[in-house]
Amino acid sequence: MGWSDGGIIGLDIAIHHPERLRKLVAYGANYIPSGVRADIGESERFNAYIEMAGGRLLPRFPRTLTTSMLSWRISAICGQLRPNYTVEQMSSITVPTLILDGIRKKAIYPSPQT
């Protein structure tokens, strides 16, 4: 089971190494770059999540790390996980897979944008 980037990693494993999975649940994961909302930086809900995560994560990092630096690091990590799977690749998944998204999910579009 994976959420967001964890779901992307699960999809990648299901496509490239299906023998390593028995089942997959991917929540809030996009499979193409245009699946990420263009207005993500304007989302109050997403920005509140970043602030909350920063409050929990910052104590684990060096004292010089600020909330804005943490936000930048999270963005950099997300930028590294920009999947661009084709319909054929997604259709090739043979592992039983459940893809979920919430009605209030603020990071990705409910359906791909073209």
Care to describe what's here?
11% of the residues are buried. The protein is globular and about 40 Å long. It has a three-stranded parallel sheet with strand order 1-2-3, covered by helices on one side. It has one domain. The protein is mostly helical and 114 residues long. β1, α1 and β2 form a beta-alpha-beta unit.
Question: Layout of helices and strands, plus pairs?
Answer:
Layout lengths: L1 E2 L1 H12 L7 E4 L16 H14 L9 H14 L6 H5 L5 E4 L14
Parallel strand pairs: 1-2, 2-3
Structural features:
114 residues, mainly alpha, 9% strand, globular
Number of helices: 4
Shape: globular
Beta percentage is 5-15%
Q: Please write the string of helix (H) and strand (E) elements.
A: EHEHHHE
The class by helix and strand makeup works out as mainly alpha
Overall helicity: 25-40%
Count of individual domains:
1
Give the termini distance in whole angstroms.
27 Å
**Largest sheet, spatial ordering of strands:** 1-2-3
The chain-level mean pLDDT equals: 77
Unreliable sequence segments: none
- Radius of gyration (Å): 15 Å
The major beta sheet can be summarized as: 3 strands, parallel
Q: How many E strands?
A: 3
